[in-house]
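not sure who needs this but someone in the group chat was asking about Hydratase from Peterkaempfera bronchialis so here u go. i didnt clean anything up, its just raw.
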Amino acid sequence: MTGFLLAGVQFEPVLGDPAANAEASGHWVREAARRGARLVVLPEASSAGYMFADRAEALRYAESVPGGPVYSAWAALAAELDLWIVAGITELAGERLYNSAVLIGPHGHLGTYRKAHLWNAEQEVYDRQQDGFPVFDTPLGRIGIGICYDAWFPETFRSAALRGADLLALPSNWVPVPGQPADAPTMANLMCMTGAHSNQFYVAGISRTGVERGQPFIGSSLIVGPSGWPLAGPAGGDGQELVLAEVDLIGSRAERHGNPFNQPLADRRPELYETGVPDVPR
């Protein structure tokens, strides 16, 4: 049996207080472990908050990976509790600053993903990565990572799927979208569901709540199965909570056929997609 319990932590990081965030996220990781979780996904920018005024302020709270204080607290938890953690972190790498997410296992660092698509004023704070979308092998299955606005690009999901991912973990800081009907799913939830369905893998879109420097965040964290339907969530828009779902990343590999004739990755026609497509004007 290869199934396990996957947990997403929807909480409210504090801007500019890494120690408080290490403590708060640690509380939720312990609670997830108490309930039996083997993999825990935290939101984007869980280490130090999100709404930095500028690059200089972000640099004050950035940390090295591995080795920084919040990272080290998460690594200690992963070792103590014998589980895996995906968490958003403000990363300093030499002179470069990244909006990143780390994957940590019981035996230490497994990988770092740096956000590819920078949202809004992030472009004045962070550097843009050139490394693509890595997929990391674990005993639980193959895990890809994206961050928040990356989900607005179907290439994020497809790149991970083509590299063999069984799950795309998506630490996020989702914000209200103009025109959102009160009785409809959030746009972010729909992106996660579509990405899961069209690539036939799991997606864990885990967001934060609260208001930071006037910017509200909408929570709505969820875990989606390979069919595209939520297995847990969406969570509420303003509360701190866990979303929990039984998943089987490795076992899902045998189920990735829509019918006897179709499999989305095998049915692709890449020779048709970009031929003659002009550069998009800005």
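also The two ends are 50 Å apart (CA to CA). if thats useful
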